[in-house]
Sequence to fold (379 residues):
Amino acid sequence: MGIPVSQAWTVATYVLKQKLTGRKKYPLVLMLEPLFRCNLACAGCGKIQYPAHILKAELSPEECFKAVDECGTPMVSIPGGEPLLHPQMPEIVAGLVARKKYVYMCTNALLLKEKLHLFKPSKYLSFSVHVDGQREHHDFSVCREGGHDIAMEGVRAAVAAGFRVTTNTTLFDGADPNSVRAHFDELTAAGVESMMVSPGYTYDKAPDQNHFLGKARSRRMFRAILSNRKKAWQFNTHPLFSEFLMGKRNFECTPWGMPTFSIFGWQKPCYLLQDGYADTFKELMETVEWQNYGAKSGNPKCSNCMVHSGHEASAVDYNFSSVKGFIETASKYMFPNLYEDQDAMKLLNEWPKPQHLPLVQINASVTSKIEELQSVSGD
Ligand code: SF4
Fold:
């Protein structure tokens, strides 16, 4: 299992409580975005295209705690922006740990090594390091030469200091499944607790609109990557979400499963879309027209979406909605399936080598954005 037993128990009892009280729409993980500022300008990111005054803004620790208390989820993910650029991040994390929330602090790890001493290892805290692949792929993805080596140095330093370290790999069109599998070997050897892999989303603000995956291509790619897996690989995503990515089962989106709170308020309806904001979590739940979202709704913004923030909560809900769901999931945890699949092996062997643009061309297209971000962050 890719997560500690105490965390699995906390999540299971939380979900069961929601079920027993008849709550149909419940949040599972709060996506707490305390700032949009970053020290990278990744080609597939929709968060760093805001004007300077927005990039300078950040949530205070009190605003973060209020959102966490209001929402009540057992897990809090802190994406961004780069959370380590927030001067009060250690205080925010300490406050969440004191509330016994399981915290995933997402980071590109450029500053992780130098800021590690500001945090204390805890079973409640995991650094979720964004590493999109092996050196060439990651540097291409984050538009920064040397980004991979710094991130891996941060991973090793955090593991050595006794922190829980997980990783987050986002894949776009052009990713090479063979290289992704080698990347899993590299992360496993570095001592990470577990890994997460998910397809990227087509943000309309992202600088590079040419490398997003359609659903069929995503399924093919994830089947090649996640079939015939190695025993040593540990994933922290729900096993049925992994089957969803591989095209072995379908889930509708559960947009309320991972609600987002940022400097703008509660984002409607999900982490990816911005169809307005609510002042309170209650208002978010009561005012979003949920039937207008998810693939079934016909909303074109949702048609290609397979991201974990929309669909992993669906897998967890299925897990606790019937005896069948419970047995299916329990058996996946007790007897991990390596998904042996000869056709997927053939797919892997025949996968064409990726044709990346030289990094220098990508860098040229985002240089001005990086300069703007650096002037805002002061790095
Ligand atoms: S399908 Fe994706 S974009 Fe649409 S509501 Fe769900 S998570 Fe958001």
Summary: The longest helix spans residues 359-377. Residues 253, 255, 269-270, 272-273, 293-294, 301-302, 305, 307, 309-310 surround iron/sulfur cluster (CB under 6 Å). The radius of gyration is 20 Å. The chain has one domain: 5-15+27-377.
